[in-house]
Amino acid sequence: MDFRFTEDQLSIQAIARDFAQKRIVPVAAELDEKGEFPLENIREMGQLGLMGVEVPHEYGGAGMDPIAYVLAMIEIAAADAATATIMSVNNSLFCNGILKHGNEAQKQKFVRAIAQGEAIGAYALTEPQSGSDASAMHTRATKNADGDWVINGKKSWITSGMVARYIILFAITTPGIGAKGVSAFIIDTQLPGFHAGKSEPKLGIRASATCEIEFTDYVCPKENLLGAEGKGFAMGMSLLDAGRIGIASQAVGIGRAAYEATLQWSRDRKAFGHPIGTFQMTQAKIADMKCKLDAATLLTLRAAWAKGEAEKNGGRFGTEASMAKLTASEAAMWIAHQAVQIHGGMGYSKEMPLERYFRDAKITEIYEGTSEIQRIVIARAETGLR
C-alpha cells in the first residue's frame, strides 16, 4: 500500500491549513459565541476551491479527488467545526448530489455558484417527525396543470437553511408506497412559497446556520426535478454515504485539535514540580488519544479512497463510509472528553477552545446517521441479514 499523498492533494491541504490558521482560528470563538454565520470566510473558501473540492473545473470547482477533500476538511475542522459543517454540506451533499444525479443543464446552472462560494447550498431530508426514519416524511409534491411541482411541508435541522440559495429537497410524490414514492428536487429559495423558519439553539457548531424550512404552495419548475421521479430516497441514502466521509473528516479535525492542544498542555502545565505529561495516568490518556485519532484518520482516508474507486470502476463504499464516520465521531468525542479532563478547570473555561471542541464533537455522533444507524449499516453489510 502507498500512503504517500500526491502533490495536488498536499497542495489543497496546505491551502486549507493556511487559510484555517490565518482566517478562521482568530474568529472561531467569537463566531461560536454569537452564533454568527461566517459568510465572508465561506466566500473566500470558494475562491480557494474549498467549497467544490471534487467539482470538475468545467463547473467551477478544484477538480480534485476524495482524498484531497478529506485532507482539506480536516484542516478546516481543526480550526472550526461549524465552518467545516458548511463546507461538508456544500461539497458532499449539494455539489455531489447534482454532479451524480443531475443533467447537464442542472450542473451548469446550480453547481458553479456553490462551488465558487458565490452562493450556499443545502440538503433537506429530515423532518420534525422523521429523523433516522427518513422515509416517514410528510412533505408532498404534486403536479399542477403545467407539469410543475407544487410543494407543501416542513423540513427541520437544515444546515445553512437560512442562507442557502439552492437546496436539494426530498418529498413524497406518490403517497402510500413508502420510500419508492420519494423524489428529489432542486429548490431556488428566492421563489415564492419558501420560508426559513426558526433557528435551532444548538449546543455546538453554533456558527453554522441551522433552521426549519417551510414550503407553502411552492412551485418548483419541472426541470428542477433531480433524477427520476420515485428515485429520491435511494438517491438521498447514497448521498449520505459521501456525506459521512465529510463528517468523519470533520470529526478527525476536531479530535486532532483537541489532541494537539493536550500535547502542548501536558508539556507546559506543571503539578507537584513536574510537567503533567510525566504522570502515567496522563501518558495513558495521551497514548489512547493518539491511537484512536490515527485509527479514525486511516479509516476516513480508506473510505475516501473507496469512494474514488467506486466513481472510476463502479461499486459501493457505504460500509467503509459508515465505519469511518462511526469510528471518527466516537473518537472525537472521547478525545475531546479526555482533553477537557487533562486540562482540568481550564478545559472547562471558555478562555480555551477545549470546551468548544467538546461541544462540537457531539454532533458528529448524531447527524448524517447516528452511531446507532452506522452500526446497523455495518452489521447488515457483514451478515447479509436485515
Task: List the topology elements.
Blueprint: H1 7-34, H2 39-47, H3 66-79, H4 81-101, H5 104-115, E1 121-124, E2 140-143, E3 149-159, E4 166-172, E5 182-188, E6 194-199, E7 210-220, E8 225-226, H6 232-268, E9 270-271, E10 274-275, H7 280-313, H8 318-343, H9 354-363, H10 371-383
Parallel strand pairs: 1-4
Antiparallel strand pairs: 2-3, 3-7, 4-5, 5-8, 6-7, 9-10
Helix pairs in contact: 1-3, 3-4, 3-6, 3-7, 4-5, 4-6, 6-7, 6-8, 6-9, 7-8, 8-9, 8-10
EC number: 1.3.8.11, 3.13.1.4
Protein name: 3-sulfinopropanoyl-CoA desulfinase
InterPro entries: Acyl-CoA_DH_CS, Acyl-CoA_Oxase/DH_mid-dom, Acyl-CoA_Oxase/DH_mid-dom_sf, AcylCo_DH-like_C, AcylCo_DH/oxidase_C, AcylCoA_DH/ox_N, AcylCoA_DH/ox_N_sf, AcylCoA_DH/oxidase_NM_dom_sf
Descriptive notes:
The chain is 53% helix and 15% strand. It has 386 residues and is α+β, with helices and mostly antiparallel strands. The chain has three domains: 113 residues, Acyl-CoA dehydrogenase/oxidase, N-terminal domain (Butyryl-Coa Dehydrogenase, subunit A, domain 1); 109 residues, Beta Barrel (Butyryl-CoA Dehydrogenase, subunit A, domain 2); 151 residues, Butyryl-CoA Dehydrogenase, subunit A, domain 3 (Up-down Bundle). The strands form three sheets. The chain has a four-stranded mixed β-sheet. Helix 4 runs antiparallel to helix 5. The longest helix is centred in the middle third of the chain and has 37 residues. The radius of gyration is 21 Å and the shape is globular. The two termini are 33 Å apart. The model has no long low-confidence stretch (mean pLDDT 96).
